[in-house]
Amino acid sequence: MSDDVFLPWGVVTPEFWTVTEAVPGLRAPSNVPVAERIAEISALATEGALEKATLLAGQLDEDHTAACGGTVTTATADIREIRGYLASLSGDHRAAVGWYLHMVRLRAGLHGPHHPDTEAAVRRTYSLWRGIGNPILSHRLGQELLTSVIGIQGPHSATAVRIRQVLARPALEPPA
User: Fold this and answer.
1) 114-158 pLDDT, tens per residue?
2) Contact at 8 Å (CB) between 112 and 71?
């Protein structure tokens, strides 16, 4: 058998990667590193372009997930955290806490429950939760946070103990 049977059908040119009209809805993959794209998204949010930042964060999430074949990376956790941050800026506390809890679980899976990145992520999630002004929603999301923290760090971790203390207070008592 001849080896030329296995030769490619053509040479891929740079235009191949930028032309997307052939498949409706297909975007050309971005060659910009994830950290730079996150910085751009953050800058847009700071400028008040929250809708655009949210759209770009979703696109980044899709692009990165596809590029990694669904494999979870630290960048995946970073992207999910920025999505939570944007949800919190838009006032969607339920979605924000959901993204942050997802991010904490990803970091725990990547690094372990007691890794500094995981512990810092738990603290950021706790802080986000404590900033929720609606006491009923805060209590409900606090229960979810407690369940997640217990699953990641154990029932006797400092964070789990602190969350239980906060949840035990009357709903109208001001935060400590």
Assistant:
1) 999 999 999 999 999 999 999 999 999 999 999 999 999 999 999
2) no
Report the distance separating Cα 104 and Cα 163, nearest Å. Answer: 16
Concatenated DSSP letters of the chain:
--GGGGS-SS---HHHHH--TTSTT--PPP-S-HHHHHHHHHHHHHTT-HHHHHHHHHHHHHHHHHHTTT---HHHHHHHHHHHHHHHHTT-HHHHHHHHHHHHHHHHHHH-TTSHHHHHHHHHHHHHHHT---HHHHHHHHHHHHHHHHHHH-TTSHHHHHHHHHHHS-TTSPP-
Read off the amino acid at residue 20: T
Contact present, 40 and 59 (Cβ < 8 Å): no
pTM, entire model: 0.77
Torsion of CA 114, 115, 117, 120, to 10 degrees: 30
CB proximity list for 133: less than 8 A, separation 6 or greater: none
Cβ pair 145, 128 in contact under 8 A? no
Separation of alpha carbons 8 and 35, rounded Å: 34
Q: Which tokens go with 62? A: 């899709």
Burial of 98 (0-12, 13-18, 19+ CB in 10 A): middle
